[in-house]
Amino acid sequence: MTAIVDGLKAEYADVVVLETTKVGDGNSKEEIENSDIKVHGIIAKNADGEIVTTVEGHSYGEEKVKEVIALLLED
User: Cα–Cα distance between 9 and 64 in angstroms, integer?
Assistant: First the structure.
């Protein structure tokens, strides 16, 4: 997942902030509790910090990440 996000950062740098966080780092556990994912996945927020969408798990690729980015750009 980190490699996918890192690969897309430059492409989308002017429109969205992309970052990865390991579960347990920072406030990641609180973020998970405040979303509808159980353990790990994607939590996509708009500029106001509101959750736009989530993706449960870790078995998705670049296409799914780009789908989430598209939703953020629509918001």
Answer: 15
Q: DSSP labels for 8-32?
A: HHHHHTTT-------TTSTTHHHHH
The structural domains of the chain, with segments of one domain joined by +, span 2-74
- What is the residue type of 15? V
The Cα 36–Cα 55 span in angstroms is: 9
pTM for this predicted structure: 0.87
Token pair for 14: 């002017």
Q: What is the mean pLDDT of residues 42-68?
A: 93
Give the pLDDT confidence score for residue 68 in this predicted structure: 96
